[in-house]
Design brief:
Chain B: It is found in: Cell membrane. The complex is a heterodimer of chains A (404) and B (291). Chain A is α/β, with parallel strands linked by helices. Chain A has 18 helices and twelve strands. Chain A has two domains: 181 residues, Periplasmic binding protein-like II (D-Maltodextrin-Binding Protein, domain 2); 191 residues, D-Maltodextrin-Binding Protein, domain 2, CATH 3.40.190.10. In chain A, helix 2 packs antiparallel against helix 14 and helix 9 crosses helix 10. In chain B, helix 9 packs across helix 11 and helix 11 packs antiparallel against helix 14. Chain B is globular, with a radius of gyration of 24 Å.
């Protein structure tokens, strides 16, 4: 009798365990995998969205570590997991996934003819349009790998602006004293890609052609910054953005390239015209700058597609873009919405970037993360004198041919 | 009569065990065979590749410089870490076995690092070994004022830092297990040795060490296996850098499978690691049975 009772309890427990997740899932219209949950205004943004769309959104926080984040997204999409409907993915991921069939095309129901022309055409084509012409993501914003300077240091060393390569070098040299450095970077092997490509662009090179002499000049320039002029520390090959930003905030660096609109500096009380602020990117051979975005994508395996379309229509709308600007300081990806923003130093500089600089999407390949890691590894080797610049160029070209 | 009744109810036991057998079969046996199968294929999800290549992945492992560097560091990591675990672990166990006032307190606090998640330790260590902000250099500068070293940017020092953190976290647990063995040694043996005029050093080598050597052997095998499969410390502390000099084999497998989506090649590395683990596991069972 007692054993029968035990069996009944066991079975009841199993049934409850199986049924319960279903009950939980029905409470929400869709599940969002978001990178913005740590933002203090995330709840306000979500409330706006739920109010305007009438959707009840379950939110899963993406890990803050970039490797973990990417691995989780990859696992969900590649395995056909339907537990997440909408995901936020960056350019590295979208260029990897856009041709896999894991992402639902959006041109018919979300990015329709009425609004598609407001999005940056080149970026849309390069980053989130598949070979078959499907647009698979809604850009959440338009960002730049902007140039940031510390005004206190500009004043201290007698510089008004950093407008040319010569200004850049002179300021970097002047500001490199007392254990501080003129230029700071984030040269961890998966992060340094952005800076290598930025300097290649500034010198007028081509990231996919390492026989180009301008590419050599760019690498030589970065090498000289470390070893000849000693204006940037080799120690930064261990640094990701969090370490680089902390050093910039602490006054260890005078200028850097960084994404975003300065939230980290605001939070640290170091943002302002007389402190850290955004500046026009200097002109070397060219005045080039990278643009990027995190895009909202729809998992093909989603079982809540109608709700997901509603969500995506909202984030692609004027209202959705303005909510992202107000809550996350994200500059709208739509040109018509961007024009409606009130003037401030960020919007003014973003306008100047789009008008005066050569704006480019970052060079991506299908196996982007593997390519980025390989390039970062040999870059670290050349900066540590483990290989020569010539060897770097040969290996880099080899990786281009292998992955492109 | 009683035995017959018990046998007739054996099916209840099987029913109760069955869910576990099914779950274990599905989550352990099936993945092992599936991993072995995939290791003979070139599966690259991002390129849409899925073709049979026979032993090609296995040949590639031994000519791939990335993997060879990974194997090199894995061996350095396992051998260095285990050597230090044994030497320092026995030393710490001896200290904890001594009679002194704060013995219980020390035995308690010594386990704190072991109780912390490795990922937390790895992330803290990334800052801890930073030249500017790290507490390691801050401590050294109290004795060497101008000391400057960015531990995690040079291959050798980054490797040393990873090994040091592994020992810092896991040594206390190893020592506590050795301590358990030490406490089984009868005090009469030491008293008899003292009467015969043996010094403390002689007592250690003639009594203590021979009596705990089997404990050390039995403990060393699972600890070695954990080192071989170690992943989280590198993942959170160095991401395998600088270059790929601190990549451990488990980290490379994860990178190949989950970041690069080279499932076939990642599976090949996993199968090779699995074979090594089986050898260690069998050896472990042999020593346990012998004991």
């Amino acid at each position: 009798m007692r054993s029968n009772l035990f069996l009944v309890i066991l079975l009841a427990g199993l049934i409850l365990a199986l049924v319960n997740p279903g009950v939980m899932a029905q409470e929400y219209d869709l599940t969002l995998y978001s990178i913005m949950t740590t933002d203090q205004d995330f709840d306000d943004w979500l409330a706006d969205l739920e109010k305007e769309t009438g959707l009840k959104v379950n939110v899963i926080a993406a890990p803050t570590n970039s490797d973990t984040r990417q691995q989780k997204v990859t696992t969900v999409l590649s395995s056909g997991d339907s537990s997440i409907d909408i995901l936020e993915i960056n350019d590295e991921m979208s260029s990897s996934f856009k041709n896999t069939g894991w992402l639902e095309p959006l041109q018919a129901k979300v990015l329709t003819d009425e609004i598609i022309d407001y999005f940056p055409e080149g970026y849309m084509e390069d980053m989130i349009t598949s070979r078959s012409g499907d647009i698979v993501g809604v850009p959440g914003y338009s960002g730049y790998l902007a140039f940031w300077v510390d005004q206190e240091k500009l004043d201290k060393y007698g510089f008004e602006t950093i407008d040319t390569k010569e200004d850049f070098i002179a300021f970097a040299k002047a500001a490199s004293e007392d254990g501080n450095f003129g230029y700071g970077g984030s040269w961890e092997r998966t992060y340094v890609f952005n800076e290598i490509a930025t300097f290649v662009n500034l010198f007028g090179g081509d990231y996919f052609d390492w026989t180009n002499s301008a590419n050599r000049e760019a690498i030589q320039f970065m090498y000289d910054m470390v070893h000849k002029w000693e204006v940037t520390p080799i120690e930064q090959i261990g640094d990701k953005y969090e370490q680089m930003n902390q050093k910039f905030i602490d006054g260890k660096y005078a200028m850097i390239f960084m994404w975003g609109t300065g939230t980290e500096y605001r939070n640290a009380g170091r943002y302002g015209e007389d402190q850290i602020h955004i500046a026009m990117v200097p002109e070397f051979e060219t005045r080039s700058i990278f643009t990027d975005s995190w895009s909202y994508v729809l998992n093909s395996a989603s079982e809540n597609k109608e709700a997901a379309y509603k969500f995506l229509q909202y984030v692609a709308s004027e209202q959705g873009m303005l909510s992202a600007w107000e809550n996350f300081d994200r500059y709208p990806a739509r040109s018509d919405v961007a024009k409606k923003l009130p003037d401030n130093e960020i919007t003014e500089m973003y306008n100047r970037y789009s008008e005066e600089a050569v704006v480019r999407g970052r060079p991506m390949v299908p196996q982007t993360m593997e390519f980025i890691t390989q390039m970062g590894t040999i870059f670290q080797q050349v900066m540590q004198n483990q290989i020569t610049i010539d060897e770097f160029l040969v290996k880099a070209q080899g990786f281009v041919e292998e992955y492109k | 009569m009683f035995v017959q009744k018990a046998k007739s109810k054996l099916w209840i036991a099987w029913i109760l065990v069955l869910p576990v057998l099914i779950i274990r079969g599905f989550t352990v046996i099936y993945p092992i065979f599936e991993t072995i199968r995939i290791s003979f294929y070139d599966v690259r999800l991002l390129r849409g590749l899925n073709q049979f290549v026979g032993l090609q992945n296995y040949f590639k492992v031994f000519t791939d410089p990335k993997v060879l560097e990974t194997i090199e560091f894995t061996l350095i990591f396992v051998i260095s870490s285990m050597t230090l675990h044994i030497l320092l672990g026995v030393l710490l166990a001896l200290i904890l076995n001594m009679k002194f006032k704060a013995k219980k307190f020390l035995r308690t606090i010594v386990l704190i690092p072991w109780a912390m998640p490795m990922v937390v330790i790895g992330m803290a260590a990334k800052w801890g070994f930073n030249n500017e902000y790290g507490l390691v250099n801050d401590f050294i500068r109290r004795f060497v004022p101008n000391f400057e070293l960015s531990w995690l940017i040079h291959s050798d020092t980054a490797r040393a830092a990873v090994i040091a953190m592994d020992i810092w976290k896991n040594l206390p647990f190893f020592a506590i297990l050795i301590l358990a063995g030490l406490q089984f040694i009868p005090t009469e043996l030491y008293e008899a040795a003292m009467v015969d005029g043996a010094t403390k050093v002689q007592a250690f080598f003639k009594i203590t060490l021979p009596l705990i050597v089997k404990n050390i052997m039995v403990l060393s095998i699972p600890f070695t296996m954990w080192r071989l499969a170690s992943f989280d410390i590198v993942y959170s502390m160095t991401s395998g850098g600088p270059g790929s000099s601190t990549e451990l084999i488990a980290y490379r497998i994860t990178t190949e499978v989950f970041t690069n989506l080279n499932l076939g090649y990642g599976a090949t590395l996993a199968v090779l690691l699995f074979i090594v683990m089986v050898v260690f596991s069998t050896t472990n069972l042999y020593f346990i049975n012998k004991k």
